[in-house]
Amino acid sequence: MSDNPEPGTRNAERAPHALLVAAGQGARFGGNKLLAPLEGRPLIDHVATTLAAAIGGGILRGGVAVVPVGATALLWPLDTAGLTPIENPRAPEGIATSLRRGLDALAAETPGVEGALIILADQPALRLDVIAAVVAEWRRSGRTTRPRYLGAPEEPGHPVLLDRRDWPLADRLTGDQGLRALLDQVSVSLVDVTGDNPDVDTPGDLGRFEESR
After folding, report:
1. What span, in angstroms and rounded, lies between the C-alpha atoms of 103 and 203?
2. Residue 155: what pLDDT?
3. With bands split at pLDDT 50, 70 and 90, how would you rate the model's confidence at 188?
4. Cα–Cα distances in Å, from 25 out to 28, 89, 91, 121, 163?
5. Confidence (pLDDT) at 28
6. Position with higher pLDDT, 71 vs 19
7. Cα–Cα distance measured from residue 29 to residue 80, given in angstroms and rounded to the nearest whole number
8. Any idea of the CA torsion for 178, 146, 58, 74, to the nearest 10 degrees?
C-alpha cells in the first residue's frame, strides 16, 4: 500500500473516487458474467451507467475499475463511465488482490483522494440515490460508510465507502476475503436506504433479477 496521509478538512465539498471491482472469474455463472445480456445491455453497462451519472453529477470524482488482463470487451462501458481500467494479473487468486490493486492505483494516481467507493460490478441494481446517501453520510461522519438496505437488513450492504485512513487494512486480506472481513476491524457508519442490491452470481440469479424488474 502507498503511504496513508491524514485526511484533509472534512466538508461538504469532498467527493470520493470510485473503485469498481470487475475482475472476478464468474465461475458460478459459467464465464463472461459481466457481458451477459440484461434488458438488452451487458450487465456491466448497468453499473457503469449509474457510475457515469454519479461522476457527471459531482458525487464521485472519477475512479478506477479493476479488470482481468486482456478484458477488452469491458473497456468501452468503463471508459464511458469515466473510469480508468486497471488490469489485475492476479485476479484468479481472489477479490483481495483486486481490492489492493485498485486502492494502490488510486493512491498513486490521485494522492489527495480521501475515500474510495468500492462497487461490485455484478450488482446491476446499484442506484444513484444510494451512492449519494452513502457519500453524504461519509462527509458527515468522517468514517467508512456502507448502506443498510431495508429489503435485506441482515446482509452487508454495498457499495462501501472506505475512508482513506482504513485503506491499509486491505493489506491483511487474502484470497476471496472481501470487505466483510475488512470492515469487522473498523468503525463503520450505516445509512438506511430502501430496496436491496443483490449480487448476480448465477444465470438463475440473473433470471430472477429480470423477473423482479
Report:
1. 30
2. 85
3. very high
4. 9, 12, 8, 12, 27
5. 81
6. 19
7. 25
8. 30
